[in-house]
Design goal:
The protein is mainly alpha-helical. The protein has one domain. 82% of the residues lie in helices and 0% in strands. It has 18 helices and no strands. Helix 1 runs antiparallel to helix 10 (261-296) and helix 5 (137-153) packs parallel to helix 7 (185-210).
């Protein structure tokens, strides 16, 4: 499967997941709102998600996939599956006691995560209850990450990419179906998180079995390859989780702010996650196994070609998305969420945070494209140094904004965005210094043209928002249709400008989808 087609597969399913995620968040906003119950649930939901992205999807997957690819190439499928069984046993040996311990110490964990809520006993108690219900999700979703890594390594991207859709559907069903039966919608949502983990686990286990890569149970062993996995995973837990660590720190700062700040950050992040998930996650998921395979085979040219295309695709899609979100932040939040228990004041808070998050969106996507270049070479130390620097910048900026300004949640989002750019500069500079990222002519040619096409689109969106301010000010069908029309206008103008500037021709796109990974053609570098 070509790199472009792999990105399209993962991105397509991720887009469906994000659409389902918007439906989920609209239901949560209408039923739970953006007050104390919502704050408590979002804090509780962040806990398993933080550890999932930090350890399972971040550290474990980034370390597991290159080693699995090595076993697959050196010893065939049987040897690779033997390694997968050992990895699963090691994962369970850690997850089972870890989950039990954190459920037991949930009150102290919540004090560390949201110290500002200690002065609000009712909300603090709800956060503890919701956390204990939802936290076992971590165990199931970590196994899902392992099974997804196995499937991605044999270029079966679809099932793993479709898995998050199940989370959204189960959560919608739980919030709508269980809320009337429980004290509030937060309990229903927490139960939905747990149920979604079980459903996702069963889904991918069956997908592995049908692909004849089922990962059976075995006893934990201390083998050389498991020790290598741990050696790679531990530093990657920090390096690959920069954004997640930043988001958890965001909760700490927001807990000292008025009620609703945590929810505002959550809803803003959910909107920002659409392009990040569709573009960034798709690129990172598809790129890592391809780079690992090319480097193992000694094909540096193919690895460099895929790395350049990842950066180009990331910039091509993330830059206009970031600018569009910055211009359309308020109408987007209003149309999506302003109904039921979600008020106009909630819209203002979330829109400000969304515009700030948008400033860092290209950085977050480019990090997803740069990290696989290190992980495929089994270098986890450099991303670790970049992560530490970015986290330090995030903390310093948040303390400055908290003490010296009244930006509130906007300052928190802005600090995350700026620290993301620090991460990009460090990682990109390291690859360039080592000559592991040779920038090709096509990327040099297209990058400034992408910026110009994005500027044309942004100007058009800004003018359209001014002319159509009336219908955009109401969360009605007319308002939604107007927003959709503006988005279509912006997308069409961007595509037209990019085509006129020769950024990506239709023939080149077809060739990218047909070509094997890493191959080149005359068209790809032609004017």
């Amino acid at each position: 499967m070509s790199f472009a087609r792999a990105v399209a597969t993962v991105g397509g399913f991720t887009m469906l997941s994000r659409v389902a995620g918007f439906a989920r968040d609209m239901v949560i906003a209408a039923v739970i709102g953006a007050g104390p119950v919502a704050d408590a649930f979002f804090i509780a939901f962040k806990l398993p998600n933080f550890f999932r992205r930090l350890f399972a999807e971040g550290a474990f997957a980034s370390a597991f996939v290159p080693l699995f690819a090595r076993e697959l190439q050196a010893g065939g499928r049987a040897a690779a599956l033997g390694f997968a069984r050992e990895a699963q046993a090691a994962l369970l040996a850690v997850l089972l006691p870890f989950t039990a311990i954190l459920i037991a110490v949930m009150p102290w964990l919540m004090r560390a995560l949201a110290p500002g809520l200690v002065g609000d006993p009712a909300t603090f108690a709800l956060a503890i209850d919701f956390g204990r219900i939802a936290f076992p999700y971590l165990m199931f979703i970590s196994l899902v990450a392992l099974y997804g890594g196995v499937l991605n390594s044999i270029e079966h991207f679809g099932h793993a990419a479709a898995t998050p859709i199940l989370l959204n559907l189960v959560l919608i069903a739980a919030v709508l179906g269980l809320t009337p039966l429980l004290p509030n919608g937060g309990y229903a949502a927490a139960l939905g998180v747990l149920g979604a983990g079980i459903v996702q686990f069963v889904w991918l286990a069956q997908a592995c079995r049908r692909a004849e890569v089922g990962v059976g149970l075995t006893r934990p062993v201390r083998s050389a390859r498991i020790m290598r996995l741990l050696a790679l995973a531990l530093p990657t837990a920090i390096a690959g989780g920069v954004q997640q660590i930043g988001l958890v720190l965001d909760v700490v700062w927001a807990s000292f702010m008025p009620a609703g700040a945590i929810s505002a950050l959550w809803y803003a992040d959910r909107v920002a996650q659409l392009p990040l998930g569709v573009v960034g996650v798709a690129i990172g998921t598809a790129l890592l196994p391809l780079l690992a395979r090319h480097l193992r085979a000694g094909d540096a040219a193919a690895a460099a070609s895929n790395q350049n295309r990842a950066l180009e695709v990331g910039l091509l899609l993330a830059l206009p998305a970031a600018l569009a979100l910055a211009v359309l932040a308020e109408p987007v939040v209003r149309i999506l969420f302003e109904r039921g228990h979600f008020s106009a004041a909630d819209t203002q808070r979330a829109a400000g945070a969304l515009a700030a998050f948008a400033a860092g969106l290209p950085a977050f996507v480019l990090v997803k494209a740069l990290l696989p270049a290190f992980y495929a070479r089994e270098d986890t130390r450099t991303p670790l140094y970049a992560a530490i620097l970015a986290i330090a910048v995030n903390v310093a900026l948040n303390l400055s904004f908290l003490l010296a300004t009244s930006l509130n949640q906007v300052g928190i989002a802005l600090a995350s965005a700026l620290s993301g750019w620090i991460n990009v500069v460090f990682l990109g500079g390291a690859l360039l210094a080592r000559r592991q990222l040779p920038i090709d002519d096509r990327l040099r040619r297209n990058a400034p043209r992408i910026v110009l096409a994005s500027a044309v689109m942004t100007l058009a969106l800004w003018l359209a928002v001014g002319w159509l301010a009336g219908p955009l000010h109401h969360a009605t069908i007319l308002g939604g249709a107007t927003l959709a029309g503006i988005c279509l206008l912006g997308g069409g103008l961007y595509a037209g400008a990019a085509a006129l500037l020769g950024v990506l021709r239709l023939g080149e796109l077809r060739a990218l989808l047909r070509r094997a990974p890493g191959t080149t053609s005359d068209a790809s570098d032609s004017e």
